[in-house]
Write a structure and sequence with these properties.
Number of strands of chain A: 11
Number of helices of chain A: 0
Strand content of chain A: over 45%
Largest sheet of chain B: 6 strands, mixed
Largest interface: A-B, 23 and 22 residues
Shape of chain B: globular
Oligomer: heterodimer
Number of strands of chain B: 11
Low-confidence stretches of chain A: none
Largest sheet of chain A: 7 strands, mixed
Distance between the termini of chain B: 41 Å
Order of helices and strands of chain B: EEEEEEEEEEE
Radius of gyration of chain B: 13 Å
Radius of gyration of chain A: 13 Å
Mean pLDDT of chain A: 94
Chain lengths: 111, 111
């Protein structure tokens, strides 16, 4: 089975811009979760989608949003980018067995 | 607040040594505990532990969970330089499909 894929792998944006990241889960997995990884804060949960519905949300501002499509692919959007949003954004997919498998991540740099 | 603490934060050993990595947790609704290995990319799944006292094993790696004392250990025997990585412990929160991560243990294996 193909693993979780994320696009793009690298992004450089300017403060104030917005960005959209994409994640395709493992075939058959319906749950997609997003995480932010930074050297200072480690891995932090952003949100989780299942069957096109956001089921859970972490403690991030409203500038961070997402959605899931009927084929389980998910997108994450960050508006009005700040320098502190520079991070590795990881997507993970899971089936009903709860193990979460991570994609390669999108490295976002905000200048 | 849900919390996962790993120790040590950093460990340097020689090839062939055996290492034990620790993970303790305080969470409101525990579902499972997961271990991941992260090199210069996304975390790769190692184990998921749900029941106390049942050892999970994969080659030279093994892990066990103690739900009474709220901790888990990851053992690596006969370490190799390829084991050098950050090892992450995470707790899956029941009902939230959210992983709460520890800070990670940076393991370095010297030849």
């Amino acid at each position: 089975k193909a693993g979780v894929t994320q696009t793009p792998r690298y992004l450089i944006k300017t403060r104030g811009q917005q960005v959209t990241l994409s994640c395709s889960p493992i075939s058959g997995h319906r749950s997609v979760s997003w995480y932010q990884q930074t050297p200072g804060q480690g891995l932090q949960f952003l949100f989780e989608y299942f069957s096109e519905t956001q089921r859970n949300k972490g403690n991030f501002p409203g500038r961070f949003s997402g959605r899931q499509f009927s084929n389980s692919r998910s997108e994450m959007n960050v508006s009005t980018l700040e320098l502190g949003d520079s991070a590795l954004y990881l997507c993970a997919s899971s089936s009903t067995h709860y193990e979460q498998y991570f994609g390669p991540g999108t490295r976002l740099t905000v200048t | 607040e849900d919390k996962v603490v790993q120790s040590p934060l950093s460990l340097v050993v020689h090839e062939g040594d055996t290492v034990t990595l620790n993970c303790s947790y305080e969470v409101t609704n525990f579902r499972s505990l997961l271990w991941y290995k992260q090199e210069k990319k996304a975390p790769t799944f190692l184990f998921m532990l749900t029941s106390s006292g049942i050892e999970k094993k994969s080659g030279r790696l093994s892990s066990i969970l103690d739900k009474k004392e709220l901790f888990s250990i990851l053992n690596i025997t006969a370490t190799q330089t390829g084991d050098s990585a950050i090892y992450l412990c995470a707790v899956l929160i029941q009902g939230a499909q959210k992983l709460v991560f520890g800070q990670g243990t940076r393991l370095t294996i010297n030849p």
